[in-house]
Amino acid sequence: MPPSAESSRPATGFPADDARCPCGSGDVFGACCAPFLRGAAAPTAVQLMRSRYTAYAVGDAAYLVETWHPTTRPATIELDPALEWRRLAILGTDRGGPFDDRGTVEFDAAWREGEARGRLHEVSRFVRDEGRWRYVDGDVG
Ligand SMILES: [Zn+2]
Q: Where does the record place the YchJ-like middle NTF2-like domain (predicted)?
């Protein structure tokens, strides 16, 4: 299969700050998810959701552990380097704002692994403890 512009991007590895953010916000990485992956607190649940999607897309398992609520966090997170996250669409949010301590985000994420393609639709729950939004769990389907 000839390489395309899309498949030339490695499945793991951080984009340049002036490259398009993997979360699909339309902003550049350095002004979108990068500050959160580098330790800044995401002000809203949807920003945390976007940054976690970006972490999946770039293979940043440590960030996924860190932003997963301790009560539901898996012991380890193994990311499959062959699985490529292609696109994120935020379908809706409920609360999760700067003055909330919980919220939900509904999203649809498209993935590709070799010839296989699929989508993940989830309503994710987030809580904010000590100023930090964290992913709790979600309903997939
Ligand atoms: Zn982003």
A: 44-138
CATH classification of the domain holding 123: 3.10.450.50
Q: Determine, yes or no, domain membership for 49.
A: yes
Q: What residue numbers bound the domain in which 91 lies?
A: 29-140
Please tell me the pTM assigned to this model.
0.90
CA of 136 to the centre of ligand 1 (A): 20
Please choose, from the candidates 96, 84, 95, the residue with its C-alpha nearest in 3D space to the C-alpha of residue 47.
96
CA of 33 relative to ligand 1 center, distance in Å = 4
Asked, for residue 63, whether it belongs to a domain, the answer is yes
Q: What does the pLDDT read at residue 6?
A: 45
Q: What's the gap in Å between 70 CA and the centre of ligand 1?
A: 24
CA 34 to centroid of ligand 1, rounded, Å: 7
DSSP structural state of residue 106: E
